[in-house]
Amino acid sequence: MNATIQISTTTKTTHKRNLLAAALVGVLAMSRLATQGLAQETRFDELANLPFAEGRPTKETAQTLRDELLFQRATQTYLWAMPLINTLGMQVGSEKTFGAGYNVLPIWKQRLDAKTLVTTPNSDVLYAMSYVDLGKDGPLVMEAPPMLQGILLDYWQRPIPVDGGKFFGDVGLFGPDRGKGGKFLLLPPRYKGAVPKGYFVYRSGTYNVFIFLRGFYEDPKNLTPAVAHLERTKIYPLNGEAGAKPMKFPDASGVPVNMLPISDGSAFDQLKLLVDREGDNLAGSDWLGMLAAIGIVKGQPFTPDAHTREILDRAAKTGYKTSRVIGFEEEVNGRSFRVFPDRRWLNPLADGTPSNPSGALNLSWINVAGDYLDLDTRIWFFTDYYSVSPGMISKIPGKGAGYMIAFTDGAGTPLSGGGTYRLNLPANIPAANFWSVTLYEAENASGLANGQPFPSVGSRDKPAQNADGSTELYFGPKAPEGKQGNWLATVPGRGYFAILRLYGPTEAAVEKTWKPGDIEKME
Questions:
Q1: Which one of 81, 215, 326, 396 is most buried, by most CB atoms within 10 A?
Q2: pTM above 0.85, yes or no
Q3: 3-state class of 104 per DSSP?
Q4: What SS3 class is residue 346?
Q5: What backbone phi and psi angles, to 5 degrees, belong to 85?
Q6: For residue 260, what pLDDT band results from cuts at 50, 70 and 90?
């Protein structure tokens, strides 16, 4: 009896202490929020109440507001240019490491690991990526072997339209070749020259073009056939294959390379180089005016002094962090990204249907009904992802790919590297080809560096199934006992998010009759 009383008393005391600690944490959190809100309000008040003398700004006021104007314009320009900055980040990192030129096509000849810093890489296919300049080299031809899967995008990462109006961007099964391969002709903006016969003609909106190819394999232990297939690609000028530079296929696997969106002031230097190459192909007069307002004008020197450089650097860092705020939202501009109303899985095109796969938007991120750019959804996409095409989002059962993104657990709490979580995938996962779940760094959307070879597990890894045919996956610092084959490691102190990919989603995925469970935290 006495022991029972002692235990009960200790439990009550501990409970009181826990309640007091929780209350203190709550008070401190509210205090921090109040302090942050007050600091922000004070800053806005300071700007609004800067002194004028005799109706004119003082010297100090004028300088403060000039600096603020530059900072605001640069920050908004960065966010507007997010697709460009995403593309430029990949190009700068790739060409610095692997070389430049229409004939240079780096191939990840092994599955992508965390050494390749790029937004949401897929460890379950092989990648090949190249960056070409039609202004420098003129029209280019890409010869593709049969069954090559790829996308041809301009530097805004808009799928390039194909003559005839039926196809955009896709090469392969969803392209005009229907998977038979052939010669794909890339033409620069406003091209007026003769177009020879025998080509699939893609007319780019920018001189600069992003070529993104994917290699599919059946056996993860034998990638040689997929690599050899990618290496059958040829890129050369229209004016003659004979004099073209020989193709180079550097192996990008396992090479530390930063291809993430540029998040410092050098982003504006890269935008300047792009404006010089593109001019009014890049934007209309309003946004060219905004670029000019921060010193970026085609053909004119861009030589910011040290003070201006400091402001531009802070603007880029602020712009990138702001994009990360937008990138974790579940709803943007009144549109919910939830794939299912009772699940936390997201997709910006979750409202797509078989007859209208992109939903309310087109693949230039224009709200079709309102005829305006859905700027925040575009920012949402390009801070974490890249490349999209009609083929990728196809709702034809068994074709294309389905994507679901989870930033939180079922309670809406962000996924934390220190916690242990469980994900239940019901039986008969609707993927005609394969499925996978991959983890990504919350900080920058690169593959989670978790100490495992790849931050991915999927059907080709043959995880164990439950008696009812469902599959349970586990995420956490340590694998639950006996669950190593169904486990992905996480890192305490580092947040992450997950993407469920269904390659060749079948009818149950298209019609949303199959639903994955939410990621649930285990006690």
A1: 81
A2: yes
A3: strand
A4: strand
A5: -65, -35
A6: very high
